[in-house]
Amino acid sequence: MECNACGAILEGDSLARAWTCSYCKTVNHNKEFLKQHISSIDFAKTHNLLQVGLVAYECGDYVKAKDILEKILIEDSSNIDAWIYTALSTAFLTNISNFEESFNKIKSYIKKAESIDYGAPVLYTAKSVCGNLLGEIAKKNIERQYDFAKKSWFSYESVDINKAKHKTNEELSVAFKYADYGLSMKPDDLKVLGAIIILTLLCDQLYKGNNPHKEIVSKAKDALCVIEQNGLKEKLYSLLDLEYKEQNLIDSKCNKKNDGCFAQVKMICLWALGVVFILFLISILI
């Protein structure tokens, strides 16, 4: 077993719900725990269709599982397992074409489960799995829109600069929307999260004029700084595809917030030195 973040070997019970990496301290959720949890459910005390739905989930028949579990929820909205595995089934069925609808449903299902038992162990694992699955699809959507934006710019730049800017920004605005989706799911797979961050920063760099999506860009910068603070930046570089290894871009974006503070301190110090020097000259003349 390897850590999703740094790749270090994870130690501990292979049947545990989660492991904390001894190297980077990242919590790694055990996907197999979702199946273990099913075997621990006392089906005699639950809806009679729950076992059928969860068996379908275990077999990878997510369409059947989702249909059955949704029917259970119509009759019994207090069944936390039905909410959790409906969210998981929906996540496994999510693709580029149905992403937004699935995203909203999964967030709703998870919220319902949290309202029943926020601390349920299986809930944490489900959120991790859903976050990584949706994060991966969000990443693909951002990639697609970023490529469209680059093509729009090169296609129209020499013909009609205003149209080029409009078309490019139009494609990038969609990319930022998916970046917001991806970041909000908080994927704990470093490769998925890292790609979303880098693509968001590249989209910001490509945007023509004043970018109205700076809040999303700021979220990406914050996430990148957390990765750096956890000592995982080099690991991130090794995981990313070659085309996303924009190290200078990453470093400048991550340090940008600190740059403003350093600049202000530098100006104050220079001003203070200037005042001291002037007072020194005055004392000499006197």
List the helices and strands and how they pair.
Layout: E1 18-20, E2 27-29, H1 32-40, H2 50-58, H3 62-75, H4 80-92, H5 99-116, H6 121-156, H7 161-184, H8 190-206, H9 214-229, H10 233-239, H11 247-285
Antiparallel strand pairs: 1-2
Helix pairs in contact: 2-3, 3-4, 4-5, 4-6, 5-6, 6-7, 6-8, 7-8, 7-9, 8-9, 9-11
Describe the structure.
The chain is mostly helical. It has a domain of 125 residues. The chain is built from 11 helices and 2 strands; from the N terminus they run E-E-H-H-H-H-H-H-H-H-H-H-H. It has a two-stranded antiparallel sheet. A hairpin with a 6-residue loop joins strand 1 and strand 2. The mean pLDDT is 83.
Fraction of residues in β-strands: under 5%
**Number of helices, where a helix is a run of at least 4 consecutive DSSP H or I residues:** 11
| Average pLDDT | 83
What series of H and E elements makes up the topology? Answer: EEHHHHHHHHHHH
Radius of gyration: 25 Å
Strand order of the largest sheet: 1-2
Rounded to the nearest angstrom, the distance between the terminal CA atoms is 77 Å
Q: Structural class, from secondary structure content?
A: mainly alpha
Helical fraction: over 70%
Multimeric state:
single chain
Q: Low-confidence runs (pLDDT<50, min 5 residues)? A: none
Number of strands: 2
CA-based shape: extended
Could you give a short account of the major beta sheet?
2 strands, antiparallel
Question: What is the compact description of this entry?
Answer:
71% of the residues lie in helices and 2% in strands. The chain contains eleven helices and two strands; from the N terminus they run ββααααααααααα. A hairpin with a 6-residue loop joins strand 1 and strand 2.
